[in-house]
Amino acid sequence: MCCGRAGISVVRRGNAGREYDVSFGKSNLQQLINDLTFQAATVNGSGSQSANLVLTRAIFSMGIPVAPKNVFPSNIEGLPTWYQLRISPRGYQARHGDPDLLVSLNPATWSADVKAVRPGGAVVHEEAYSTAEARDDLQYFPVPFSKLAKTQIQNDSLRKQLINMLYVGIVAGLLGIPFEAIEHGIQRTFQSKPKAWPVNVDAARVGYEYWREHFSERPIRHVLKPVPGGTDGLMLIEGNQAAALGCVMGGCTVAAWYPITPSSSLCENLIAYADRFRVDPATGEKRIAIVQAEDELAALGIAIGAGWAGARAMTSTSGPGISLMAEFSGLAYYAEVPVVIFDIQRIGPSTGLPTRTSQGDVGFAYTLSHGDTRHLVLLPGTVAECYEFAQTAFDLADRFQTPVFVLSDLDLGMNLWMSPDFKYPEKGFDRGKVLSAADLERLQGDWGRYRDTDGDAVTYRTLPGTANLDAGYFTRGSGHDEEARYTESPEIYARNMDRLARKFETAREAVPRPAIESLSNTTVGLIAYGSTHYAVVEARDLLEERGLAVDYLRIRALPLSKAVVDFVAEHEHVYVVEQNRDGQMYDLVRLLLPPELVGRVRSIRHYDGQPIPAYVITRPLLELEAVPV
Amino acid sequence: MPTAAVNRIGLARDAYKGAATTLCAGCGHNSITNHLVKALYEQGVEPHRLAKMSGIGCSSKTPAYFVERAHGFNGVHGRMPALTTGAGLANRQLLLLGVSGDGDTASIGLGQFMHMVRRNVDCTYIIEDNGTYGLTKGQFSATADVGSVQKRGAVNTYQPIDPCAVALTIGCSFVARSFSGDGKQLVPLIKAAMAHGGTALLDVISPCVTFNDHDGSTKSYSWVKEHDNEIHDVSFIPYFEEIHVDYEPGTAQQVELHDGSHIVLKKIAEDHDPTDRLAAIRLLEESRERGQLLTGLLYVDERMEDLATRERLPERPLRDYGEDDLRISREDFGRLMAELA
Q1: Cα–Cα distance measured from residue A200 to residue A182, given in angstroms and rounded to the nearest whole number
Q2: Most trustworthy range by pLDDT among A230-244, B131-145, B168-182
Q3: Between chains, do B89 and A303 touch, taking CB under 8 Å as contact?
Q4: Is the complex ipTM higher than 0.90?
Q5: Domain presence at residue A5
Q6: A:331-350 residues touching chain B, CB 8 A cutoff
Q7: By CB distance 3.0 to 4.6 Å, which of A381, B194, B295, B321 could disulfide with B325?
Q8: Measured between beta carbons, which residues in chain B are less than 8 angstroms from residue A468?
Q9: All domains of chain B, ordered by start, with CATH?
């Protein structure tokens, strides 16, 4: 889903901006309704994630759109972690940046965290932290968290985690979240553990009561007001969970994976769905095999072996795993074996920042492996597309007998996003050109594995186990002729490579087409893909407010559709926005263009590991398009 | 006209043949191919149920040389186990026959080999073991002996890896060793391995005819002459004929190779209990110390569940399930969406 012009505008503008006769700190700013960024600064492993989810669910249940982002370290316990929850009247889901309301429970980052709070904001903190350098444009709310936990929380074993529920109660009071919404948030967060409800509700209530007693006479600049029906028809789901659901609905029967952040949750969700929906209750038999492999080489190898034998097979990984999968990817391309590879991108090179986001694998995945290798790459931009493209990927892999990469990223894959309900698939699987024993009987041996019978460069295959003596053929990554026999013949080699190139051209317009949003009379266009979408949606609204209307083409797959050329031809300037240093898609777009159009394309890049905010797009665009201030 | 002999499924021996070999004449691998043809023919394996899997190297080419009508997959170096694992999960009705080499298994593919064994994938895993890299002209593999010398003089100082010892210590459910020239032993072992419901490792010592005949090689004629009783490995074979041996269980046999060099094969005695893993490890170790190469069935555990069984996969191949079997029902899907709201 998206918000703003093209999508669902969940909350209308107009609520915000009313003047209140109060001063927040010494800022004298207007009070804002449903428009803030909340940030919890905690220590990794302290159990704050549940508390943050409770707040998110509570606010969402008030009909207020939410956009949460988890900024976490590559660490199990002890390093700083932040949770940002953006709330905006129009339901923008891109990262906004600095917080308006900070909860600080980490002494190590206390000082730096406070510096980042926007003027007029509020800070809830452990009372023991020093406020010697307090800013005079913020409101401070000291809370004796440790003391409260010791005296008010009876459960010894859960005390450490439940401290976080104390701030849930405080924040609920400050923002005006009804306590019933908090109770709902707790039930929703601990959906499968009703036993956990009372202790969490009690702890949140301790915080809420503390707010009532000490802070209820101190309004802050940002408040929340329920919006009846504001989030009806929407759900919250992570991209990896959506992709896992897509794998189930797309008929995946073999999955092999090796744990790596940020992709692990895809296969973990798949395991959960498989346990629930793929087990025959009568026999206990399972209609899927999910194997944790010894490394990413084996993971892809298992998936290719299964794809070759006729299963819908996939693997899921991130950058370092993709590097290890290079050789096998080339085998599947050249031997023409269907397989689906999810790459939930994190920022590289090398180990990079393992828990930070990026779109840096686009160029690499597109041509992964040595030699003239080219792959189909799907680029979901929303959680709904993570779900949908997972299914599309299996169809395309079978149809074109080739690896299909699905490139998501940490931001899309591991954060919760609002989305309308997913659609139940109406079409059956496209299993591509597979000859059955009956087909072979009819053909009387007249078939060749790599013969282009239909003229579309896509050939027929048979599956091992097909009960016909003509079914067998020899699959290999070495040179082969139309009958799959080994050959080093220069003519046959070149002919086969030319056919593979034609097959790729056949696929060009069969992969998901770009999504284009055009306005009349604008000469400026934006091109983006993947999770950058949400920043573009917001940026277009901001630019329009400044009088600069921009068209938008969202690339949803590689190879690039010819529609990209037309889009560039229709605009004087086209900006390619992406989250990598080298402008990888910018390069691919320019390679597609005729020379006279190349000069029209410009590049906007964001690559610090944090999800791209809208201002990264608007600032250079306003400057380059010379929009008057 | 005489009728050609056929097996229990009505196929002649020729139906189990493949393309002409492109390996060196006299290569032990060709002997193994012939023994495979014999074993598969005699066992009456349906060609369409057979999937021949391999990696890269001389050994990995051989699946093209038998049962031409079966499916085959010649993958990438050292990664046959992964492809085989996946194929078996997609269709557990397949008879998976993996052919690998000592480089493919013990060097580049050691990790995959061990993890396949750990998972007990239902397949036969044949190592055509000659201690050298043939296709790249004679570099050492990880099964080469300490002190082996390459043609250009490099000496191997690394300890050899014994795939059987590795397999035993990590719980392989079927471990056997044989010699390419011993059809009498190898054919039944291949049949037993194919019949076994789990990973069946068959390490077959298979002489390389091209890359070991020079002074300084522990597999050369002169070296073998001086050390014949302690030799536990095969040596250079300059003649274009395959070697055949035939000896009794419990006996050791010195085999004279074509060039007059020898190997000593020690057949496991009939009183060895192949279900006793500790005994198998002890036998291997003792024969290694004596410089003998132990052949025969070292260990078998028929009770260990294979991967597909442990994963609770149905007998029907997973690849045969369609939308109606695999998708969440409309009702459940609706409930799921409601849960996420």
Answers
A1: 10
A2: A230-244
A3: no
A4: yes
A5: no
A6: 331
A7: B321
A8: 48
A9: 13-340 (3.40.50.970)
